[in-house]
Amino acid sequence: MAIVGRPNAGKSSLVNRLTGEERQLVDSRPGTTVDSIDTLLERGGHRMVLIDTAGVRRKAKVDPKGVEALSVYHAIRAMERSDVVVLMIDAHEGVGEQDAKIAGLAVDRGNALVIGLNKADLMSAEEQKDVRRRAREILSFAPWAPIVTLSAKSGRGVKSLVDTVAQATAEHRKRVATAEMNRFFEEVLDRHPPPTQAGRSVRLYYVTQAETAPPTFVVVTNYPDYVHFSYQRYVVNAIRDRFGFEGTPIRVRYRAKRKKPRGE
What we know:
7 helices, 3-stranded mixed β-sheet, Rossmann fold
């Protein structure tokens, strides 16, 4: 689990709260955490490795030749070796453009994603509602990512965050049997068959889950290049409605049906 975010989001404070030790130096000055530090943790029956990373600032504020630039590189590498990314956000500062970029990096790399709104204990219920709404607007490309309000300093909401991370990890690694997937897919096709594109009648033959982490599905079709993007979105949403996969991106690839050689 990689813990990422902008400086002052409370990443190191969260690690200290989870471990019950001052394993990380908590300093509000940008650039003071320069390495990604691994911490083995067992909590609430969940076993995980926490990777606390450097605060990721806007490129314009980072010296491209300095130590902080290297730390940002380490932070991105930490995401690449993690199942789940926890994006910590200072609830008072709100979700910004840089947070969206960090979340986008996680999605592009196929990470499960959990949003932690830190320091929320100092906000009213209405203020929390507003910052959650704003988070959903800015992170609209990942509506499946759960949002947890917490206070790393007091510990409020931290258990909920850990439980959410554990659930996202399970969904990230979940596999659906091919037979069950195709029974579901028959229902999808009966309810909403793919539209004709450029005069071609698109047919979808079967689907199978090819990979986990992230869940990746392959749909065999006669015209993979003519499956409309809106129908592709419909298929992803239908998979989520039936099988969940909350907290993790889903990838669906369309592959042409192999033609049998003559004589077979």
